[in-house]
Design a protein that fits this description.
The complex is a heterodimer. Chain A is mostly beta strands. Chain A has no helices and eleven strands. In chain A, about 35% of the residues are buried. In chain B, strands 2, 4, 5, 6, 9, 10 and 11 form a seven-stranded mixed sheet that branches. Chain B has a four-stranded antiparallel sheet with strand order 1-3-8-7, with no helix packed on it. The chains are: A mainly beta, B mainly beta. The interface between A and B is medium-sized, with 26 and 27 residues.
């Protein structure tokens, strides 16, 4: 069963705007991760936030985690056309595995 | 500093044939994960292996699919008697720790069953 669910499914913005994607999950976690996938490529790890952290930054990325609401958000500031990709949240499950959501497809137009 | 290497990148098979997908993890990584991705869908976990051990195969179909990670050589995902529904991208990932930290993904093997 799906652990993380991203919202929205698709997002279309102009270059320079901010993009916000949300992830909701069902069970308790010790960390939550965000990955990016360019079309036809493998996934690339963006950022990991632990359950005792509320916010984390990496360059133009800002991730928040609200364990009481079982939700996380990924904010990309000052987006660029090169940010066009699918973004997935992932949470631990089972024997040291990660469960991925269906992703948010982000399109950034020049 | 090679990353996770998967081959072949593209594979075409006719129904009933066998598909073998190979994955070499990053240097120093002893944990290998296989995922399947259907068009415009997320990744579905299939199997988690360490050297010579299958740790979790809860996502593997009960029939026709098998995986191994031998002491020497790459991890192999084997699909016997392929059907059209097996057409998908198969991704391998590796990690170096058991605490579900960051995974490093290969570029995937795209299987098309005619």
């Amino acid at each position: 069963s799906q652990q993380g669910e991203e919202d929205p499914q698709a997002l279309s913005i102009q270059e320079g705007e901010n993009a916000t994607m949300n992830c909701s999950y069902k069970t308790s976690i010790n960390n939550l991760q965000w990955y990016r996938q360019n079309s036809g490529r493998g996934l690339v790890h963006l950022i990991l936030i632990r359950s005792n952290e509320r916010e984390k930054h990496s360059g133009r990325l800002r991730v928040t985690l609200d364990t009481s609401k079982k939700s996380s958000s990924l904010l990309i500031t000052a987006s660029r056309a090169a940010d066009t990709a699918s973004y997935f949240c992932a949470t631990p499950s089972g024997y040291s595995t990660l469960t991925f959501g269906k992703g948010t497809m982000l399109l950034v137009s020049p | 500093n090679a990353g996770v290497m998967q081959n072949p990148r593209h594979l075409v098979r006719r129904r009933g044939q066998e598909a073998r997908l190979r994955c070499s993890p990053m240097k120093g990584h002893s944990h290998v994960y296989w995922y399947r991705q259907l068009p415009e869908e997320g990744l579905k976990f299939m199997v988690y292996l360490q050297k010579e051990n299958i740790i979790d195969e809860s996502g593997m179909p009960k029939e026709r699919f098998s995986a191994e990670f031998p002491k020497e050589g790459p991890s192999i995902l084997r699909i016997q008697q392929v059907v059209r529904g097996d057409s998908a991208a198969y991704f391998c990932a590796s990690g170096k720790r058991e605490d579900t930290g960051e995974l490093f993904f290969g570029e995937g093997s795209r299987l098309t069953v005619l």
